[in-house]
Amino acid sequence: MKFVVGTVTSNADASRSGLLEVRFPKIFDGNPQKVTYTSPYCKINSGGFIAIPEKDDQILALYNEDLIPGESLFYYHSTILRDREFVGDEKPNPNFKPLRSSDPKAQIYNKDNKPATQTFTNPVGAGLYIQRDFSDSSISNNVTLKAESGDEINLGPLGFQVRNPQGDSIILTGSNPNDGYAAQSFSVETESNQEYKCTSSDITMKIIDGGDINIINDSTGNVGLQGIGGPWSGNIRLKSKYRNIDLAALGEGSHVNIITQGATIQVDSLGKVTISSGGDIQLQSAENVNINATKRVNIFGGEGVQVGSTGTVELNASPFVSVNGNAVEFLPTSPSKDDIAKFISATPGFPVGLPTIVPNDYYDPVGVGPGGVQI
To answer: 368 pLDDT exceeds 80?
Structure first.
């Protein structure tokens, strides 16, 4: 056998066995000949390394001059890569590259014109890119699997990355930090919805010994609901369809805080519950409202205290009912008038102390001071 150079005239093959039609200028008067495709690794009727040359590719073939039955006259060996030849006044294409990489970050040659990338791709750039380019100013050591659409999976110094052409990504970084992400961190970024679903078990978020768990919605709601905003945009919502929602702060100095611009509710680890509001506090029940204390119940109104009922108002105390420090004497009942209470002197009551709320770690507003001024 000997090597001959030819040009592929067609790679269409009804037998789907890899046959090529190739023109060899120096033999057979340049008439196209059948060339059997070969592969460095392939299992017949299974799979392996397949990359059939395209029309007009220049190839190197083995010419089997001592043909015996069962053999082919020509065997494909490899594809020749060289610069284009220009005829007459034809101008060279400045973008033409005999060795082309469709990944701008993984070019075949680096800036010093040294090979830095190995590729296995189809004619439109989809495939595998392996790059190793070390220089004084930068290091690029990546393995990238890319689709024709631009979607890609990348492994390199930054870690593991999955990206689509629009920039949405999943990034698991390596042990080296970078300008965008901390070392050994995980990041998910998408323009549209994200959904986390578990069909038959738990979803657990746990920090063993680190920082906080933060769920933050910075959206104004203006782009929600297909850009029209509305009440379902910008919120954070917790919902349990069949069971409880529990907030548990179990440390010795822990607090559970509910904070808005005008009010704060705080439950601390000692059992103290503090409510501070710049507006009204409304309690309403279809049945009873019960307030019980082992010691005292203190109620003070700066402009008055009103107790009313469509039924009976009862004051019960032992040994007596006191108003402003004075015992109230109830006169005997008479047929002509109702019982009345009398007391001789009255001194103003004393307001209950203003609530004290411990600030949280993020300097969020805490409570409301006198006159509704936020603390």
So the answer is: no
